[in-house]
Amino acid sequence: MTLRERTERWERDRLSPFAARAACSAGRPHPETPCPIRTAFQRDIDRIVHAKAFRRLMHKTQVFLNPEGDHYRTRMIHTLEVSRIARTAARALALNEDLAEAVALGHDLGHTPFGHAGEWALNEVMPGGFTHQGQSLRVADRLERNGTGLNLTLEARDGIVRHTGSVRAKTLEGQLVHKADRIAYLTADIDDALRAGVLRAEDIPQPIRTLLGDVHSGRINAFVLDLIDYSADRSEIALSPPVEQAMTRLRDFLFERIYKNPVVKGEEAKARDILQKLFAHYLSHPGELPADSRPVWEAEGPERAVCDYIAGMTDRFAVTRFEEVFVPKGWEKT
């Protein structure tokens, strides 16, 4: 018996009846010989962590654009926080931790530079629209490994593309990441806003503070404990009605005080302008695209190739490219 088979047997014997099991995976878009050591979901984790798109997350905005400080969240830190919340809850619910981790680590692979401002910018110019969850799946399926993709399991792919929005993931692990993502960004955005001085703890409505607590770790703990307690022995992942209502109220509050705050979001118009001007420029100057964009240009059209290129940029790379294209250079005597 291989190590992989031992792990698969352990999953069969120990996990919840509602859990996904690697040995019962629906497979991959392109069949592969099983690994003797890792289960299918463990291989997904490794492929995502070693992907170029994953490494770029460390230089992509979460909420605060290019903050002057070392402790504000980046898209990478957010991803790791989602992963930890998902794995903690998955273990408590006897779900498949490896699948939950794979979905969590891959859920934002396709996120744009400049956070949701970049997503909105590309959605306005890309024919058919643009969503970061759709782009995350595209990165995994089409763009990584020089165009061959990561060939993730169907369970991981489903969880990634359905980690946000109204359509539930098919697995409980995917549904768990949906909740973990929201828990992570709501609690972290409060923490970052307090650090930035754009929010005071006492500004948070008292009913929410009473239910969730007044400190960062307490808010996460309240959400996760409720999720575990309410979802135990159920065929879906959910929060109790009072806590779900508190989450909705908290999200509405943060939209008003942070996400639409002119102090926080004052530079977003510039960020959107950068990406949309770059989009138009590369459509007119295809020779400036990298060589690995050409197969996409030829197979799927110019807009798709340009969108992929810009969505994959980090914040600083987008600014650098914009300066190179649109900002005049000083004259140097030769």
Tell me what you see in this structure.
This protein has 334 residues and is mostly helical. It has a domain at 37-111 and 130-267: Hypothetical protein af1432. The chain has helices spanning 3-14, 40-49, 52-56, 75-92, 97-106, 115-125, 132-147, 154-161, 172-196, 206-212, 216-231, 241-259, 262-265, 268-284, 294-300, 302-311, 315-326. The longest helix is centred in the middle third of the chain and has 25 residues, at 172-196. The mean pLDDT is 95.
CATH architecture of the domain at 37-111 and 130-267: Orthogonal Bundle
Question: CATH superfamily membership of the domain at 37-111 and 130-267, which one?
Answer: Hypothetical protein af1432
What does the average pLDDT come to? Answer: 95
The run of helices and strands is HHHHHHHHHHHHHHHHH
Largest sheet: none
Q: Which strand-content bin applies to the residues?
A: under 5%
SSE class: mainly alpha
CATH topology of the domain at 37-111 and 130-267: Hypothetical protein af1432
The total of beta strands comes to 0
What's the CATH C level of the domain at 37-111 and 130-267? Mainly Alpha
